[in-house]
Design a protein that fits this description.
Layout: E1 5-7, E2 10-16, E3 23-27, E4 39-44, E5 49-55, E6 65-69, E7 72-77, E8 80-87, E9 97-104, E10 112-120, E11 122-127, H1 132-136, E12 148-153, E13 159-160, E14 170-174, E15 178-180, E16 186-188, E17 190-194, E18 199-203, H2 206-211, E19 216-218, E20 221-223, E21 230-234, E22 239-245, E23 251-262, E24 267-275, E25 280-286, E26 290-292, E27 297-302, E28 308-309, E29 314-322, E30 325-331, E31 337-340, E32 355-357, E33 359-361, E34 363-368, E35 371-379, E36 384-389, E37 396-404, E38 415-416, E39 419-420, E40 422-429, E41 433-441, E42 448-453, E43 461-468, E44 476-489, E45 493-497, E46 503-511, E47 519-520, E48 523-529, E49 534-542, E50 547-553, E51 557-569, H3 576-590
Amino acid sequence: MAVLSLIDNTYFLTPLDTAADRLQVEVGDSKQPFTFYPQAKLMRWDNEVNLSVRLVDDAPLQAAVVTEKDGLISWEKGAIKTQFYEQPSSDDHPEGGYEFEVILASKPASNKLQFTIQTKGLDFFYQPALTAEEIKAGDFRPENVVGSYAVYHSEKRGEFIGGKNYRSGKAFHIYRPKATDAVGKEFWGELYIDVLTGILDITVDQKFLDAAVYPVVIDPTFGYTTGGGTYTTSASDDLLGSIFTSPAYGIAALSLSAYTRSSGSEGYVKGVICTHSDLNIISNGVGAATYISNTAQWRTSSFSTQPILAASTSYLLSVAIRNGNYLYYDAGDADQGHFDDSNSYATPTNPTDAAHNNNKYSIYATYFSQYDTSSRGTGSSNPQTLSYTCGADAKLLVLGIVTAGSTIRAGGAPTYNGVTMTQVDSDRSATETCCELWYLLNPATGSAHNISVPNTGAKTIYLLASSYNPTTAGYSYAYDTASGAVETSANPDVTVTTTVNNDVVVAVLGDGLDTKPTAQSYGLLFSTDDGAYSDNLQYAVQATAGNITMSWTCASDDWCMCVGAWKEISSFIPSFHEMSGGISQMAGGLL
C-alpha cells in the first residue's frame, strides 16, 4: 500500500509512482489548509488529468471529527461518516482503487447522497446494462460495472517511448455503488454524474433504507484499472478494433497491446493497423503472433518493421483472433468500434466489411516520434547564442532563424558546439521579416552546447531550434529537398516534394501580421507574437514520399518561409548537397 503523508489538513498518497504513469490521491482539500473537507482528488499522469469529489455537507457550521489510523481516514459529523482508504487489487478491481465510503448511522431524510465533482481533461462514459443481443453474442458486464462510469483522458492515447504511457487512455473507473446494512443485506445504488453542472449523486432504494438495520455503508469505489470493464467473446478469424487519431506529428509504431484473455486453454492475437478512411491495412501494419493465457492482462504484438502513422490521421487499431478470446472494452462513442467476423488470423485482410458498434476496445499503440526536443531564444547580440541539448539518439539538428525587418542577418553560418551548420533553401526577405533554415547532421548529444549565430548588424533575431531521432537504430539522416517563398497573402504555404518515405519536414515562417497564426498544418513547435510580426516553426514526419504542404492559418500580410526535408539512411552517405559543400571548401583551400 502507498505511504500516507499529512500536510496541514490534507492527506497525500502516490499509489503508482513512475515517470510514465504517476497516480496520486489527495484526501481533503490542499487549497483549504485550515479545514479538512470530505473530499477525494485523484490525479494521473503528473496531474495532466484529475477529478475531485466532495460530499455535500448539510451542516457546514457543525464541527466534524477527523481521525486517521493505519491508512484509514475518517470524517464524522452527526449521523453521517465518511471513510477513505485504498482498495488492493482484486477480481473486482484488477489494478486496485480508492474507496470513498459513506456510513449512515440512521435512516436519512433523503435517499439521495449528493456530491460535487470537478474534473480536468477527462471524458466520462456511462456503462449501461447490456442488451439482450449483446449478451447473446457473448458479452459480459459485471454487476459493479453496470451503471458505472469509465473515465478517459479527453485527448491522449498510447504509450510514448520516453514519455507518458496512456495505454487506451483510461484514467479511472467509478464503479456502481452498493449499499450494505449491518446484517449484510445489499442493494445496488444508482450513480449519476453531470460534469457540466458539477453533480455526482448516488440514489439508494427507499424501501431498502426503510427496512435496513443501521448503520448502512454506501461504497463508491474509484478504480485505477486501465483495461475495459466489459468483455466480448471473439472467435477465430474475428478482427476487432477502435479508432485512434495520431498526434499532430508522424509516429512510428513499435507494437499494439490489447487487454484480453483466452476463452479456452490458450489463444493468440496479432495487432493490425488500418487507415480509418478506407479500412486498408497500412504498410508493415500486421504485428507478430502473441500468446494469450486465461489471465486478463495487457498483451503485446510487436512489429518487425515499424509502420509509420501520419500526423493527425484517424486509424483503426485492431487485433486479429485465433482460437477465441475475451477482448475487454468500455462503452464509448458512437460507431468508434469495428467488428469483422470474416477476416483471417493467418493473413489479416482489409476489414472493409466491418460492422460498427460503440465499443472502446482496450487496444493501444506503443510508438515514438522522430521529434526529440526544441528550444527558442531571441536577442540582438553578436553572436547571438542559444544553449541547446540534443537527446542521446538525436541525429539531426535544425535551426530556423527569423530576423526583424527586411534586411538579412549578416555574419555567416551558425555553429553548434563549434561545428558549422549547413543552409537549405536560401535567405528569404519580406517587408517586415526575413528567415533562414540551417541544419547539422549527427550533432553532439547528451549535454548542453551553444548554438552560436553571427549577427554583425546587431539585428533582432529569433532562434528556433529542434532536433530529431531516426525511427530505426543505427540510422542517421541526409538532406532530401527544400523550398521557400516570399509573398503577401493570407494562409502562407510552401510545398516540397520528398523522395523517400518517412522524411522529417521542418518549416520556419516570419509573418508580418501583428498577431500570430491561429493554426498550422502539422506539429506546432513555436508560434510567437512579437508585436508587429511573428516567428513560427512547425514540423511533420511524412509517412509516404511525395508532395507535402506546410501551411499556416492567418490573415493577409507579407511573409517569408523556408522549408527543408531530411531522409533517413542506414549509414551516413553524403548527399550531393553535403558533397558540394565539401568540394567548395576544398576548392577554397587550394586557391
